């Protein structure tokens, strides 16, 4: 974990209301930085390129769809993610933004994210914040899947102390677990404070598809598209393009003048 690059500290420029260039001059073009040899390399580079978002305190995360856009063999991605998940290098999170949306976060980053939430609320809840220690030590360390059943959660937490309903409520309110809609006795593990970014993710997807769909051939040169500023998402164009290409909503084709991005036909 010591070799993971530090997040890029690109200067946060004021977002203009028009769609002018947004790519930092020091950032390599996505066209020259689209594919990687293996999943860990892709994860480290995307972590370093995670957009700097003022007033949002979220550690870098990567979407599984972004990995699919960057490592050609999806089976390889799934296999390597599974190995790193078992080795406790990272965690996977089921998102509520789409049927098969998953986020990937390095475990150290996730624990930092949880600690940040604890510091924010421990002044209000006092001793009840002990549940976060139990959660990290007994739940996260042994339960590596994306979800957990209520009884199992309580059983693991009880290894740290006597579990009360208020403890579970505190975990939910802190955003480290969320109830599954189809089964209220099941929870998804979650990334705290990520709500505004997930809203931006959905809106940004729609904005880019709409932008391309309004063009005559529903296509645009990648080099030009990645310089557009998004109005509806705090996440940058690079983040969204990797996601949309990996999820199959967009496709790229090589032309004599460079890569072209097209809306995938249904």
Q: If you had to describe this structure to a student in words, what would you say it looks like?
A:
Residues 1-11 have a biased composition (Polar residues). It holds the Pfam family Stk19. Residues 1-31 are annotated as: Disordered. This is Serine/threonine-protein kinase 19. Belongs to the STK19 family. The protein is an alpha+beta fold. The chain is built from ten helices and nine strands. The protein has a three-stranded antiparallel beta sheet. Strands 4-6-5 form a three-stranded antiparallel beta sheet. Strand 2 (90-94) and strand 3 form a beta hairpin. Helix 2 crosses helix 10 (237-246) and helix 8 (195-213) packs across helix 10 (237-246). The longest helix is centred in the middle third of the chain and has 19 residues, at 107-125. It starts with 38 loop residues before the first helix and ends with a strand. Mean pLDDT is 87; it is low at 1-25.
């Amino acid at each position: 974990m010591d070799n993971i690059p530090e997040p890029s500290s690109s200067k946060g420029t004021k977002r203009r209301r028009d769609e002018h260039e947004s790519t930092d001059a020091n950032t390599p073009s996505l066209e020259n930085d689209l594919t990687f040899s293996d999943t860990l390399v892709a994860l480290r580079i995307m972590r370093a390129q995670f957009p700097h978002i003022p007033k949002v305190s979220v550690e870098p995360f990567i979407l599984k769809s972004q990995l699919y856009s960057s490592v050609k063999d999806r089976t390889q991605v799934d296999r390597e993610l599974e190995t790193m998940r078992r080795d406790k290098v990272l965690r996977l999170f089921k998102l509520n933004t789409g049927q098969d949306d998953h986020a990937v976060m390095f475990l150290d980053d996730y624990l930092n994210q949880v600690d940040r939430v604890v510091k924010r609320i421990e002044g209000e809840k006092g001793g009840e914040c002990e549940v976060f220690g139990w959660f990290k030590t007994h739940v996260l360390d042994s339960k590596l899947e994306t979800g957990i059943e209520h009884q199992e959660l309580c059983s693991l937490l009880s290894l740290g102390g006597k579990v009360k309903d208020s403890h579970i409520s505190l975990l939910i309110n802190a955003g480290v677990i969320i109830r599954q809609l189809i089964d209220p006795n099941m929870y998804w593990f979650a990334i705290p404070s990520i709500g505004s970014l997930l809203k931006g993710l959905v809106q940004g997807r729609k904005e880019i598809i709409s932008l391309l769909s309004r063009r005559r051939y529903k296509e645009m040169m990648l080099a030009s598209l990645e310089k557009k500023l998004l109005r509806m998402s705090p996440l940058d164009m690079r983040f969204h393009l990797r996601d949309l290409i990996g999820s199959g909503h967009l496709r790229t084709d090589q032309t004599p003048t460079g890569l072209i991005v097209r809306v995938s036909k249904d």
